[in-house]
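Subject: design request, 241 residues
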């Protein structure tokens, strides 16, 4: 059932009430009976509105997506058999724990896919759509994610040592305790990203934007390369130029 269908469905009862009221008038019912019909209808309308609000709140809180995410089974089998699947459609696929070291997923659609604890060492994810992806505890050592869309990505304790994240969009990404040691983050957009406890030793943040990013308990930020780097308070750090 779509969101648009809910109001129509719940309004049917009120429509029936109005028809009954009109029908009652045409039959010449007494004013007292007419008033009773109206009161009943109003009570029913209030109850329906409460049900509608409760249903909407439920869907919002549970994060249910109104537009179904479907992936290509053929693409999934292709990836598993050959590790080569550029431009594949794997949106919403669950590849938790998969062994995909060196896989080619260039420009692939991995929207809201799940790669929890997956092995993606040296994988090619350039220009891929990784928005909303789950890469929690995954190993992407030396992986190439340059130009990828990582908006709202979940990457808690993800290993991104020496990974290429140049030009990536990490807006509001969750990277708690993620290892970015030696990672290339030049021109990366980290606006509003959660980076608490992240390891940044030798990470290159040249021209990166960290506006409103959360940097509490970040490890070795003083050893990261900061050049024309926009910090959380909107100041520009040129200490590493």
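Subject: RE: design request

Done. Sequence follows.
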């Amino acid at each position: 059932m779509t969101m648009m269908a809910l109001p129509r469905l719940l309004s049917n009862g009120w429509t029936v009430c109005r028809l009954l009221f009109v029908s009652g008038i045409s039959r010449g019912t007494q004013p007292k009976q007419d008033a009773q019909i109206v009161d009943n209808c109003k009570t029913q309308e209030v109850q329906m509105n409460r049900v509608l609000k409760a249903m909407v709140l439920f869907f919002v809180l549970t994060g249910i997506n109104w537009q179904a995410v479907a992936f290509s089974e053929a693409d999934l089998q292709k990836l598993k058999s050959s590790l080569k699947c550029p431009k594949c459609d794997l949106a919403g696929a669950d590849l938790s724990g998969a062994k995909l070291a060196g896989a080619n997923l260039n420009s692939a659609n991995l929207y809201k896919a799940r790669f929890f604890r997956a092995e993606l060492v040296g994988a090619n994810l350039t220009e891929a759509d990784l928005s909303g992806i789950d890469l929690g505890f995954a190993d992407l050592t030396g992986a190439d994610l340059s130009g990828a869309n990582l908006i709202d990505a979940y990457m808690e304790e993800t290993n991104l040592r020496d990974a290429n994240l140049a030009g990536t969009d990490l807006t509001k990404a969750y990277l708690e305790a993620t290892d970015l040691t030696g990672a290339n983050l030049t021109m990366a957009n980290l606006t509003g990203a959660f980076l608490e406890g992240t390891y940044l030793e030798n990470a290159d943040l040249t021209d990166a934007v960290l506006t409103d990013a959360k940097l509490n308990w970040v490890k070795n930020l003083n050893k990261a390369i900061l050049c024309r780097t926009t910090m959380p308070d909107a100041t520009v750090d040129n200490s590493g130029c």
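The radius of gyration is 26 Å.
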